[in-house]
Specification:
This protein has 284 residues and is an alpha/beta fold. Helices cover 46% and strands 22% of the residues. Helix 8 links the parallel strand 9 and strand 10. It starts with a strand and ends with a strand.
């Protein structure tokens, strides 16, 4: 992890995400870029185009001032431990959020995205932030960490990786372990099944043996959860075990059908209070 991108709209939710991003940057020595997106105004005449340009200039200046204040706030978070050691910069762009993030990831080499998300309600903020999160998750190929509005202070000590025993899990778990090692966090691989059986046990044994041979000795625990509804079983397990981050793999090949594909990412983004780390099977 070398370059972290954090979109912000200066709401409490996005400011919390920025704090998470800052703590990760501090631990990993990655650079942190704050991105604020201005939506392009509609223009139908030359006069309205001029007015729109003036409005954009004013919005751009206000955004730059707020980004400066947020940058100072993030630096001050580490005043008691010798100060911030990561480099922070900011960008203001006129675009749709998902377009801007996808372009920056592709063209400027950002390899980790952190953004805030809300859900479970009908307010405009919840609808907009939730839909933006889903759009970013669906379009970028680097890991995306979604921070819910009710997430606790950044304290990454136990990460659960939801697995369906697929070969792609090995690479994704390597990314999870990289983050866990920085924070000295535990990693647990959890598989939810509707019915335990000998066939399922055989798959689990083969999967665990393969992973243990590939993870270079990092201590990873494995847990099987039996529940009729996979999503509910996973949520209940997370609550019982006091985990503080959930990681899942989004597989494009079974975009909406696979339990651990985009459909679960959408559901868990809205319903969990835990930070959600979404990894990509087709990441380069």
């Amino acid at each position: 992890m070398k370059k972290i991108l954090c979109p912000v709209d200066f709401s409490k939710t996005s400011n919390k995400a920025a704090e998470y991003a800052a703590h990760i940057a501090q631990r990993t020595n990655a650079s942190l870029t704050l991105l604020h997106v201005l939506h392009l105004p509609l223009m139908d005449t030359s006069e309205s185009a001029l007015m729109a340009s003036q409005v954009l200039d004013e919005q751009r200046q206000r955004a730059a001032d707020k980004l400066h204040s947020l940058t100072l706030h993030l630096s001050n978070l580490f005043g008691e431990v010798g100060g911030a050691t990561f480099v922070t910069d900011s960008k203001v762009q006129e675009a749709f959020l998902a377009d801007a993030v996808e372009r920056l990831v592709r063209e400027e080499g950002f390899d980790f995205v952190v953004l805030g998300t809300t859900g479970g309600g009908n307010t405009l903020e919840e609808i907009m932030i939730g839909s933006n999160t889903e759009s970013v998750i669906s379009r970028v190929k680097c890991p995306v960490l979604a921070i819910p509005a009710k997430a606790s202070f950044p304290d990454i000590h136990r990460i659960v990786y939801a697995s369906d025993y697929q070969p792609e899990d090995s690479k994704a778990l390597g990314q999870v372990i990289g983050l866990a090692a920085v924070f000295q966090a535990e990693v647990e691989v959890v598989h939810v099944t509707r019915k335990a059986g000998s066939g399922e046990a055989r798959r689990a044994t083969e999967f665990i043996e393969r992973l243990q041979a590939e993870l270079n000795g990092f201590p990873v625990r494995f847990q099987e959860v039996v529940h009729e509804e996979e999503e509910t079983g996973l949520k209940e397990y997370l609550g019982r075990t006091h985990s503080n981050m959930l990681a899942i793999l989004k597989k494009r090949r079974s975009f909406f059908k696979d339990l651990f594909g985009m459909s679960l990412a959408e559901k868990m983004t809205y319903q969990t209070k835990l930070p959600l780390l979404v990894l990509h099977a087709d990441a380069e």
